[in-house]
């Protein structure tokens, strides 16, 4: 993992306001990294950063917008994680509201854990992640070797 991280930003509808507030506070740190976001969340992140930058898009902002979560954005993000193209996931999800794509949400949580991706699921954990000295340093995460598991599964 390089010192410039690839950070995924995702929020359920009821959590988008919290994520926008969090981005407003942390935008100067976020634009130093590559950002990936699902659908509407990506639009809100971009609008928020531009507003904080006097209405202009910062030259250093590198934001990739995927599809909306229910339209496959969660799965696109999961594929990026599996391909080693995401370093950190900030996923503000709503534990009180059933989502029409709950299975996709669970899969995203699972794949993040499987590949040992640091994940924040609320503002407090996101604050701890973004304020870590490791955010700006190269880091070599330990990823479990699943070759024995795969060999057993094939039999």
Walk me through what this model shows.
The protein is an alpha/beta fold and 155 residues long. The protein has one domain: 3-Layer(aba) Sandwich (Rossmann fold), CATH 3.40.50. The protein has 6 helices and 5 strands. Helix 2 links the parallel strand 2 (34-38) and strand 3 (62-66).
Summarize this entry quickly:
With 155 residues, the protein is α/β, with parallel strands linked by helices.
* Broad structural category: alpha/beta
Which spans of ≥5 residues are poorly predicted at pLDDT below 50?
A: none
- By CATH, the superfamily comes out as Methylglyoxal synthase-like domain
Helix and strand run: EHEHEHEHEHH
The share of residues in extended strands comes to 5-15%
What's the tally of helices? 6
Q: How big is the Rg?
A: 16 Å
What average pLDDT do the residues reach?
A: 92
> Biggest sheet, strands in spatial order?
3-2-1-4-5
């Amino acid at each position: 993992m390089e010192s410039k991280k690839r950070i995924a930003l995702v929020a359920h509808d009821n959590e988008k306001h919290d994520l926008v507030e969090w981005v407003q506070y942390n935008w100067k740190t976020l634009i130093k990294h590559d950002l990936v976001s699902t659908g509407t969340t990506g639009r809100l992140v971009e609008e928020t950063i531009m507003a904080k930058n006097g209405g202009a898009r910062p030259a250093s902002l590198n934001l990739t917008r995927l599809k909306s979560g229910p339209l496959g954005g969660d799965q696109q993000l999961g594929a990026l994680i599996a391909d080693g193209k995401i370093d950190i996931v900030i996923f503000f999800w709503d534990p009180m509201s059933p989502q029409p794509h709950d299975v996709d949400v669970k899969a995203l949580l699972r794949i993040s854990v499987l590949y040992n991706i640091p994940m924040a699921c609320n503002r407090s954990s996101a604050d701890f992640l973004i304020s870590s000295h490791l955010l700006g340093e190269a880091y070599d995460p330990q990823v479990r070797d699943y070759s024995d598991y795969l060999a057993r599964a094939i039999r």
